[in-house]
UniProtKB/TrEMBL annotation:
Family of the protein in this entry: Belongs to the DapA family.
Function: Catalyzes the condensation of (S)-aspartate-beta-semialdehyde [(S)-ASA] and pyruvate to 4-hydroxy-tetrahydrodipicolinate (HTPA).
Transmembrane segments: none
Gene that specifies this protein: dapA
Residues the record lists as binding pyruvate: T47, V204
SUPFAM superfamilies to which the protein is assigned, alphabetical: Aldolase
MF terms (GO), sorted A to Z: 4-hydroxy-tetrahydrodipicolinate synthase activity
Pathway named in the protein's UniProt entry: Amino-acid biosynthesis; L-lysine biosynthesis via DAP pathway; (S)-tetrahydrodipicolinate from L-aspartate: step 3/4
GO cellular component: cytosol
Stored InterPro entries: Aldolase_TIM, DapA, DapA-like, Schiff_base-form_aldolases_CS
Record-given protein name: 4-hydroxy-tetrahydrodipicolinate synthase
């Protein structure tokens, strides 16, 4: 399965009481698919505030996303956790709801060994029949999926890709050693172009909520061999890439991108605790990124 070059990890829109706003959920999908040109959407990933969503909310999100996408993009369900048994349960439920693939974050907090990581992913892969994308984000999970482990996992038939937030050296090792056809996606917006340069397929993005069209142009330029133009566009977009994650007080995602969407008139609400909304100073900084 080809997930395209630009996958957006979609925010979960909330109303004033921080319940999921299902009307806006569909509006955000339309906006990301049609206006921002996303090839695939991750539903209930980190940017979707998965740690604070109930299982019922996740399953309804998967079901609604599949139904509303109507084949316009691939729907990737975030079903990973630090509990292998629960990850299997949620992954099987998502598969029954018709999602195209699963995104499985590395187990966080309990910090398994590399063999534990391998066995975790192997067990989930053997429990479903749909494609699996690994998700390596050491800054959030406290554990790195080493390149050798990812390469080993790439030989399991339905483990078809990875979203990796590590540096380009690690991406290069994976791309060089993985099974034929295994796809590598950067998980760092500012590394989109460098990742493409070492052979990555594309990006799983947060910034594509607000500059997806521009990112699409940059990616397409690079793939057409227009490297200088791609580099120029990368330079233009870099302040937004960095700004959405390096607000004055390093506000955790998705608070900054949610505010950016609210500024654009796409009302997605605030964030659930323990995350907090951006401050007035941070709002001014985010607005300046698009001035």
């Amino acid at each position: 399965m080809d997930f395209g070059t630009m996958i957006t990890a979609m925010v979960t829109p909330f109303d004033d009481k921080l319940n999921i706003d299902w009307t806006q959920f569909e509006n955000v999908m339309d906006y990301l698919i049609e206006e921002q040109q996303s090839d695939s959407l991750v539903i209930c990933g980190t940017t979707g505030e998965s740690p604070t969503l109930t299982e019922e909310e996740k399953l309804e999100s998967f079901q609604r996303a599949v139904k509303y996408a109507r084949g316009r993009c691939k729907i990737i369900a975030g079903t990973g956790s630090y509990d292998t048994a629960h990850s299997i349960h949620l992954s099987q439920a998502a598969e029954k709801l018709g999602v195209d693939a699963l995104l499985l974050v590395a187990p966080y907090y309990n910090r398994p060994s590399q063999e534990g990581l391998y066995q975790h992913y192997k067990a989930i892969a053997e429990s479903v029949n749909i494609p699996i994308i690994l998700y390596n984000v050491p800054g959030r999970t406290g554990v790195n999926i080493d390149p050798e482990t990812t390469i080993r996992l790439s030989h399991i038939p339905n483990i078809v890709a990875t979203k990796d937030c590590a540096d380009t050296d690690q991406l290069t090792q994976i791309i060089t050693g993985a099974a034929p056809g295994f796809l590598v996606y950067s998980g760092d917006d500012s590394a989109t172009l460098p990742a493409l340069a070492v052979g990555a397929r594309g990006i799983v993005s947060v910034a594509s909520h607000v500059i997806g069209k521009e990112m699409r142009t940059m990616i397409d330029c690079y793939l057409r061999g227009e490297v200088k133009e791609a580099a120029r566009l990368h330079g233009q977009l870099l302040p937004v890439f960095r700004g959405l994650f390096l607000c004055p007080h390093r506000v955790p995602s998705p608070a900054p991108v949610k505010h950016a969407l609210n500024l654009k008139g796409l009302h997605v609400g605030g964030v659930r605790l323990p995350l907090v909304d951006v401050t007035e100073q941070e709002k001014q900084f985010i607005a300046s990124l698009f001035a």
